[in-house]
From TrEMBL, chain A:
Pfam families for the chain: ABC_tran, BCA_ABC_TP_C
Keywords, sorted A to Z: ATP-binding, Nucleotide-binding, Transport
Transport found in the keyword field: yes
Cellular compartments per GO CC: plasma membrane
SMART domains: AAA
Family from the record: Belongs to the ABC transporter superfamily.
Signal peptide segment: none
Species whose genome carries this gene: Enterovirga rhinocerotis
InterPro entries: AAA+_ATPase, ABC_AA/LPS_Transport, ABC_transporter-like_ATP-bd, ABC_transporter-like_CS, BCA_ABC_TP_C, P-loop_NTPase
Name of this chain's protein: Amino acid/amide ABC transporter ATP-binding protein 1 (HAAT family)
Keyword ATP-binding: yes
GO molecular function, one term: ATP hydrolysis activity
TrEMBL record, chain B:
Name this protein carries in UniProt: Amino acid/amide ABC transporter membrane protein 2 (HAAT family)
Subcellular location, record wording: Cell membrane
Segments of this protein annotated with the region Disordered: 314-339
Bias kind Basic and acidic residues: ranges: 314-323
Record has Transmembrane helix as a keyword: yes
Bilayer topology: Multi-pass membrane protein
Length: 261, 339
């Protein structure tokens, strides 16, 4: 059994008396695509915010590659190898696509103020390596032709892909994707599906996918975890989850019944 | 390389600056010196506000601390200018770093107000700590000479300003094109996203404050000698208006814009000095025009119309009034559900 890339142990969170998460456990293996689904208000985004350090849990802990990260600053957790994308586009507006990617390498670069300002050789060399890596990463996601455009000139779907590339470029161990497929057309969805598989196969990174687009989750995820009202109510391969009575009742039921009636 | 490319234009400006002492009278030389000093102030302000996005108003205070630091180290301790000048700048940088730690827990208007309060506080110190600062009357700085160099004091001082301004211009230019500069812009454009890439917010903002303080402190040291005199009103709130106006006119998030803005504002103000009341009216008019119609500053116009001006612009484009991307019509959930 492989050691988990990410382990969540008994995490509970409450906001002013409202229990948002109640003893949630989660183990994600390296190179796994894990779906995290559940009806609105199930606590998916809260769990994600706990993992990346924005919320501090009332109980429980989170381990990244066996290292406890609970209570650390978001930037420190990112430094340890946790990447994420957001529900809304978070490309830096004042940068080109290429510069956004280069910013993604922040945690892997070391140039300090003096070396940068004095344009020392170490800085120039690092800058060259950074740019080269950024171009490669853009090629990987098929966006190389947009390198010099401002990020805001891209379509929404393209911005999401660039954001994923920006996160992947520093080779994190685990990446949290918060509703990456929102707003994608059906055609784009198929491409996106392929991209996620390619990321898993070539990068060996563990992906945690929060998504409302059930088809994407069922297609691409190795395992799926279902949250409802802050509790984990099911976990398993997509087919198991799809047929789980509790899950159908809590979440899929309405939609499936609507489709089949 | 286009004829009016950025590099060519800057080299011509540098050449003009180099020969200025040979052709200018002492008043014009003083104005040249002032432009260089305000270029430093504008660059410092731009690094903090234009690049790192921190709406802070402590720049005038740092300017004053640099001037007082440089002057008082000479007066009270008899240090030579060559030591007092860098020391004054470092004191300003250190104060910039120090105030950043309490200030940076705040953001937006609260940061603006607390730094404004700090600027007023330094004014109060300059005015009332008479034993050290000589109070409202200010004090004369010791005469410096550039022996054994064969230049008069004003010419020597001008070349010193030029040397420092060129060096710190290049430094800033390099800095904003590095990972540090990208971290500044990242913090400005999205704090949460910046953190998710491993950028430490407090450290990055503190760095911006410190560097900005250093630039203002250097400018203060040069200014104290240019005037030969230091008094509180030289570093009051109007200075902040001036620095802010320079980067708005020149271009936020552009190092070259800082130079342009400083040059234009100083020269326009000096040209209008003779006409009573015109200074304020024109200054206000220029600001209105830029705020209303030319948000990107002069540099954005130059960038658009001058071929070869290949400046990487780091100002965030103005937000269009469109609904946020999330509101883009998504495929209805029913269509996307599993078959």
């Amino acid at each position: 059994m492989t050691a988990p890339a990410l382990r969540v142990e008994g995490v509970s969170v409450g906001f002013g008396g409202v229990r948002v998460l109640e003893g949630v456990d989660l183990d994600v293996k390296p190179g796994e695509i894990r779906g995290l689904i559940g009806p609105n208000g199930a606590g998916k985004t809260t769990l994600l915010n706990v993992i990346c350090g924005i919320h501090r849990p009332d109980a429980g802990r989170v381990l990244l590659d066996g290292v406890p990260i609970t209570g650390k600053k978001p930037s420190s957790i990112a430094q340890l190898g946790l990447g994420r994308t957001f529900q809304t586009s978070q490309l830096f507006r004042g940068m080109t696509v290429l510069e956004n990617l280069m910013a993604g390498l922040y945690r892997r670069t070391t140039t300090n103020v003096l070396a940068a300002g004095l344009n020392l050789r170490s800085h120039r060399e690092e800058e060259e390596r950074t740019e080269e890596a950024a171009r490669k990463a853009l090629e990987f996601v098929g966006m190389a032709q947009f390198a010099d455009r401002p990020g805001t000139a891209l379509s929404f779907g393209q911005q999401r892909v660039v954001e994923i590339a920006r996160t992947l470029i520093s080779e994190p161990r685990v990446v949290l994707l918060d509703e990456p497929a929102v707003g994608l057309s059906l055609n784009r969805l198929a491409e996106f599906d392929a991209l996620l598989r390619r990321i898993r196969d070539e990068k060996g990174v563990a992906l945690i996918l929060i998504e409302h687009v059930i088809r994407l989750v069922m297609d691409v995820c190795d395992r799926v975890t279902v949250l409802s009202s802050g509790r984990r109510i099911a976990e398993g391969v997509p087919d198991e989850v799809r047929n789980d009575r509790q899950v159908i009742e809590a979440y899929l039921g309405k939609e499936l019944r609507a489709r089949h009636s | 390389m286009a004829l009016f490319g950025r590099r060519n234009v800057l080299l011509v400006l540098l050449a003009v600056a180099l020969v200025l002492p040979a052709v200018a009278n002492s008043y014009q030389l003083y104005i040249g010196n002032l432009v260089l000093i305000y270029t430093l102030l504008a660059i410092g302000m731009n690094l903090l506000l234009g690049f790192a996005g921190q709406l802070a108003f402590a720049n005038a205070a740092m300017f004053g601390i640099g001037a007082y630091g440089t002057g008082l180290l000479q007066v009270h301790f008899g240090l030579p200018f060559a030591i007092a000048f860098p020391a004054g700048a470092l004191i300003a940088a250190a104060v910039g770093l120090a105030i950043s730690f309490p200030a940076l827990r705040l953001s937006g208007l609260y940061l603006a107000l607390s730094t404004l309060a700090f600027a007023q506080f330094t004014q109060w110190i300059f005015l009332h700590w008479e034993g050290v600062t000589f109070g409202a009357g200010g004090f004369k700085t010791p005469q410096i000479s550039f022996d054994p160099l064969p230049v008069s004091k004003p010419v020597g001082l001008y070349y010193l300003s030029l040397l420092v301004a060129v060096a710190l211009y290049i430094f800033a230019r390099n800095l904003v094109a590095s990972r540090v500069g990208r971290a500044f812009v990242a913090v400005r454009d999205g704090e949460v996203a910046a953190q998710s890439l491993g950028v430490d917010l407090l450290r990055t903002k503190a760095l911006a404050f410190g560097i900005s303080g250093f630039y203002a402190g250097v400018a203060g040291g040069l200014y104290s000698q240019a005037l030969n005199y230091v008094s509180p009103e030289g570093y009051d709130l109007f200075q902040i208006v001036l620095h802010k106006a320079m980067i708005v006119v020149g271009g936020m998030g552009s190092v070259a814009g800082s130079l342009l803005g400083a040059g234009i504002i100083i020269i326009v103000l000096e040209l209008l000095r003779a006409v009573k009341g015109a200074q304020e009216i024109v200054f206000g008019g220029i600001l209105l025009v830029f705020v209303l119609f030319l948000r990107g500053g002069l540099i954005s116009v130059i960038q658009r119309y001058v071929k070869g001006w290949d400046e990487p612009l780091h100002a965030a484009p103005p937000r269009r009034d469109e609904p946020p991307p999330l509101a883009v019509p998504a495929t209805p959930v029913a269509e996307r559900a599993a078959p």
